[in-house]
Batch of 2 targets.
Target 1
Amino acid sequence: MSALTTNIAEPLSHLTGVDQRIVTRNGTFQRPSKVKAGRASRGSVRLISRHVSQGAKLNTFQGPKSFQAPRLRHKTRAVATPPKKSDKGNTNKVEVKVNGASTEDIKTDILQQVDNIDVKKDTMLSIVVVGASGDLAKKKIFPAIFALYYEGTLPEKFCIFGYARRVFTQQEFRDMISMTLTCRIDKSEDCESKHDIFLERCFYESGQYDSPDDFARLDESMRIVEAGAPSNRIFYLSIPPSIFVPVVANSKVAASSTGWTRVIVEKPFGRDLQSSNELSANLEKHLSEEQIYRIDHYLGKELIDNLTVLRFSNLVFEPLWTRQYIRNVQIIFSEPFGTEGRGGYFDHYGIIRDIIQNHLLQTLALFAMEPPVSLDAEDVRNEKVKLLKSMRIPSVEDVAVGQYKRVMTRGVEYPGYLDDETVPKGSICPTFAAVALFIDNPRWEGVPFLIKAGKALDKRMAEIRVQFRNVPGNLYKENTGLGNHSMTNELVIRIQPDEAIYLKVNNKVPGLGLRLDNSRLDLQYNKRYETELPDAYERLILDVIQGDKRLFIRSDELQEAWKIFTPLLHELEEKRVQPELYPYGSRGPVGAHYLASKFNVRWGDLDYDAYHNTVKKSEN
């Protein structure tokens, strides 16, 4: 690092194009001529200068006048640092460094634009993505925040900070996240300009996750960007759970002093009841429950958010939502790909912890809970907790587990789970599980809730299937030409893909004879609504901004969820239950069908292909 030395009482005329600003401790800005030079000896002011190359232009985005953030496109700058209090001798001497840390980049550029920033009392929203260089941040979080900005749902004054150990320049950081930002298909106008404006509000700070000093530096940079306005701050922890606690502890130094601070925590929330309780206890040492937003992105999906609307605003459904009319409920999740290099992480958790204990159990709770007193977050979550407390703890006899194996199909070889180099040799971690659950309350007594989830299956699909009881003394039994199962009324809620809700009803086939057919009353979202559905992360991040915790998991809710599955998980591990092997790309192990048959149930997703093909034909 080269260094230049000058006297603070003299202008830096020997530097080409230097713009000088004084920053006082209270955050105000003054020209050097308005501040006594002698004050620099007490370290109460700092001179920060930017070296602007000949002919360079300073770019600013054309955003609202109340917040004009700078575009960082400099290569070099000069920073004048005041002497420390312990310094002796000539206290009017300062040191100007060229090409310093990223924090000074931000300070310099903000100071360059201070005359354009109208510091009003309007609150600034600052979002910090911790783990900003990771895949989740790049592929989901930053695109979701941009989508909220593009839709006009973010506050007028906002800024985004990335924080991670990796070192980036500001431009490198913006280039990285710009690769995954996309605009709505149905609202593509003005996409490029909004893209540029959004990036100009993004900043980066590198630092260690266990360093209070680095988080203090982050706080200082955020205060510069916030320019003295009151601020609310959100910290999104896109990091491994092993470092949740140190990050939360250190982030306290960067909490807002003029507004609220909220922290988003990604799953997994522990591996079992004990580890989950320890994590919650450690988080609560530094945060209140009101500040913690445990995010399960599945709850942000459109059809999941619609569950309470479907139930509680349609008289035709709510009276039927009982054991008297419903024979079984199925919640099904399948992915057509395997672990693909993430086997080491997955092997530590398995399919039950990764999908069933959180995504699908939360879906079940929303589906089966009693009507809440109101749509207030606490009222909704109270009912979910009551539901979870009434669930029966499953045993090994109530589960079927599997693991996908290598297969050769049409000349293409698909690897098995154990072929993943990151997976321990001989692992018996299940990549597929089917579980029968029961709710011991008056509404659902005796109704089996069958849940299954798996990787490397034949299709990507998630849905809820409600199979109703057969009509007693059916008058048309001899006119169907179909089995009794095919006459079942069934409500299907397709979560993904091709979001839809359809009801299977029996209908007379047109003609002179009397023959019945099982037909569908079909609501397809892509045909009914001419809009692109928002990503789950968009909905949930917006809920955090608005303080709506309805779709987030409370600590006692998490505890009850782990009470259901921890005994089963420990039993599977202690008995070393061997998973049934199933070919990559198949429908899963045969054991899942035997499990369903124990409760006189046939998996409804066997009809998926026929329905999907019918939909495709109708579109053509």
Target 2
Amino acid sequence: TRQRLARATMEMARLADERRRAAEERSAAEEELKHREWMLEALNDPMAPERPQQPRDIHFLYASPLAALTNSGVPVAMAPLRVDEEYELIRSALVTADASGRGSPSLERDLCTRSRLMDLVLAGLPGRCLHLSCHGSDTLLYLEDQKGCAKPLHAAELRSWLTDASVSSAVGPEVAVLLCCRSLDFGYALLEAGCSRVVCTRGELRDSTARAFAREFWRRLTLPSTSVEDAFRHSLIILRAQGSTVSSDVGLLVLLPDDSELDMPARSASETYLPRRHQSRALSNLGPGNDPSLLHLEAEGEDIVGREVFSCRVLAHLETRRAICIHADEGMGKTALLSFLARFVHMPGRCFSRSVLYSPSWVDERVELLPWLWLVAFWRATGREQWEQAADLEAQGLPSWCGTSDHLQHFCAGLQRDASRRFLLVLDGLDRMPTGRVEELIGTLLAGTNNISVLMAARVPWQRDIRCYKVLDVPAPPLDPLSSARLFLRRIRRPLQRADFEEVEPLGGGGGVGDRGVGTVAGDDWQATLKALLPHPLLQMLAGNPGRIRRVAEQVTPQLASIRSLSCPQQAQKEARVTAVVL
């Protein structure tokens, strides 16, 4: 009986798949028939009005993983992309669309996973456009799972998925824009997948050039009766007019299949990985003896410097644990880390897509008001109007200043109604709150619902259960020396000079001579400056504490003679006396 049930289930799945494919083929055939009828009508009556254009549906797919695994299994931090900025550029370009022609295009944002990419490529829906924002190389796209880990997709692997003959009958996307570095081979793979046009690159494209092209391309494509070719050529003209820096990158942009001069390059599946932005070395070249920390990039935001791999570990714990407490000493960046994780998992497609309940201001509120604040955040996350929901509670005799138990019950009831979604409640500053009362609120919440997890931060580990739920204590380690140096360099108020270093040889190049008779430390050579700063006693004194690093870096101003004085109080007093005598 079990075998018959399994066979019946498989047969039902096969029939459902065939029904879906038949519907897609029927939709494509109907569109083709309408198009041919319109062409025949246009031949019979040249003065007939133009056929109304199909509104475009633009899908913005992003992947900005925090870490990737090397061939030896070592996790390595990756450069986060400026996904929000790129999305806002496209959204602002579409806002000005003229609704009289093609209609107002829609814009949807989602995580670029393997399944989502293939679903959109093979969906067979007319007017579909794709914009992919991710890391890439000659033969790879670095997609993302829901927990911030990179999932590489090889162009040959994509081609192997398209061996089904039924794919050719589907209507592919009108255009796919892939602006990651050296994406030509993958552009050909998307072309074989059914995309009518693919915009890709044949070199390393600057971030500024990629954003400028995306803004002009999508803005032009929203105009009535504008083809992909016209939008591409218009964007190149605009880029050439923006100066020599941007103009030099124009030749890297390619529109397939129009560029007949380019032959499809033969690629090897063993080629090394070079990410989209500023990667200095290949991940796949790392061996067991290499130091993965040397591959940290200088392009990520300051709040997450050195915390990429740790963030992935916390997100992996959230997959199986409902209560996690990140603990560390003061100044270790717990608040910044919680804020980053809340923004990261809240983005569409990730593990808590649009379902994070968090506000930094909660730490300053009375604990009695927390259930009401959580309830307001829940209304906001589920698209409910706060004034309308609050009016309903007022009608039931439950104002916002009433007892916490009633609001907590309404919160639990709301979570149970949205049982299909997973929510994450983020709490910071538990040390400032009455521990017993907070434990009671969290315990009631965990026991009353099954679809919410709690991420907390404190200076000391929790070390006890909450209503039979184990709280996993995760210590936040100090920053490694390289991350400490990079954070310090981002926070200082002036370039470092040779006088700032003790027993350090001059860094290449003959820098100019400053007011103190010493040149600056190769200001444009980021790696050389990092190398010189790593053995500095000031960095060792800071001991990887982000808060301490920021406070000390703020003191590095043009008035400071040398950063040696910050690591040696006696030296500081001596320099102060010399300065007083000079004055």
